[in-house]
Amino acid sequence: MDVFEQNTKKALPLVRASVAAPVVAALRGAGVEPDTVLNPLGVSESQVMDRQNFLPHETIYKIHQAVADSTSPDFCAQVGQSIDLVRFLPLGDTLAAALTLGDFFTRYTQAVSKESNAVTQSLLVENEHAYFSAKRKFKISVSPGQTDAFLASIWISLLHRVMDFRWDPSQIILRVSEPDVLPRHFHGVQAIKCSPQGFSIRFPSIWLSRQLHPDALENPSDLTNTDPDLHAPQDFLTGLQSLIRIHLGEPGFGVDELARLCGFHRETLNNRLAPYGQSASQVISGIKLEEAKKLLGPGGKSVGETALRLGYADPTAFSRAFRKWTGMSPSAYRNFTTGRA
């Protein structure tokens, strides 16, 4: 197998957190404060909106479900139908340059590969039919029904806008895990129930030659993409470190909470880390030390502020931990890096 045992057999299934951003942003319009929905799931609005963050896929499924529970069953799908594709999708400015629907899907499937390390999206053309599909490469324990409804709504609505008066819903076959969470009048499309391991849309392949107009993507002409060129972590340890950084400032964050976020038992998490020669506690401590050194560096934070940023309510506890890691106090380290005597 090699390549470090294929990145220790399986990467932690992560996806860019901002895939949930549109439905979270829409909550305020529905009179719901986002953090009242997100905080019970262990995430915040700012974490979801930050495109540099990656979260477990099942956390995203929980977010979409919690949003629907706090609003209406078809809320996520309704948001998907009205989304600005260029602002939402990866490399939106590149997608906006597509001349045809086929060109758009080709560009999209290439761009989206960096958004997740555990879900593939593809376009397949067979004679008179084209198939756009998403497949999960991990075993799920949380229903992705609301997430699939949100994503399927994006694509069905795009097809509807591109075809305009030529739209014929009878030529669409949509398969999703929970058809009931789609709007009652879904551009005339009747969805079919399928496995929760993915969703698919079949439509006439001739549609791929249809020209794209800017209004089909709801794209402002002056929009430019400034998102970081950041790939979903392909290695288990790298993915775990990414997840730790998101939650590092939460009081009491430790191995048990990290294991819960990953969907593992504590022992399973440590077993997955054994090939790296580290325990979960050591990985967390390593990230804390790394972040502490950055915060205490020249022009950085005070010891008290650094302690709070790392989830320590008591600066003394942070000082004890830092001394254990480095052999010196945070104050001594700060003075050393700033050149003070």
Walk me through this protein's architecture:
- By secondary structure, the protein is of the alpha+beta class.
- The chain has 18 helices and seven strands.
- It has a five-stranded mixed sheet, with helices on one face.
- β3 and β4 form a beta hairpin.
- α6 (75-81) packs parallel to α10 and α16 crosses α17.
- The longest helix has 19 residues, at 145-163.
- The protein starts with a helix and ends with a helix.
The general outline is elongated
Radius of gyration: 23 Å
Main sheet attributes: strand count, strand direction, barrel closure: 5 strands, mixed
Poorly predicted regions? 1-8, 219-226
Continuous helix count: 18
Terminal CA distance reads 53 Å
Quaternary structure type: single chain
Largest beta sheet: what is the strand line-up? 3-4-7-5-6
Q: Give the helix proportion (percent range).
A: 40-55%
H/E element sequence:
HEHHHEHHHHHEEHEEEHHHHHHHH
**Which structural class should the secondary elements be placed in?**
alpha+beta
Instruction: Let me know the average pLDDT.
Output: 88
Beta-strand content estimate: 5-15%
Please provide the count of β strands.
7
For this entry, give a set of tags.
single chain; 341 residues; alpha+beta; five-stranded mixed beta sheet; two-stranded antiparallel ribbon; 18 helices; 7 strands; disordered N terminus
How would you sum up this structure in a few lines?
This protein has about 350 residues and is α+β, with helices and mostly antiparallel strands. The protein contains 18 helices and seven strands.
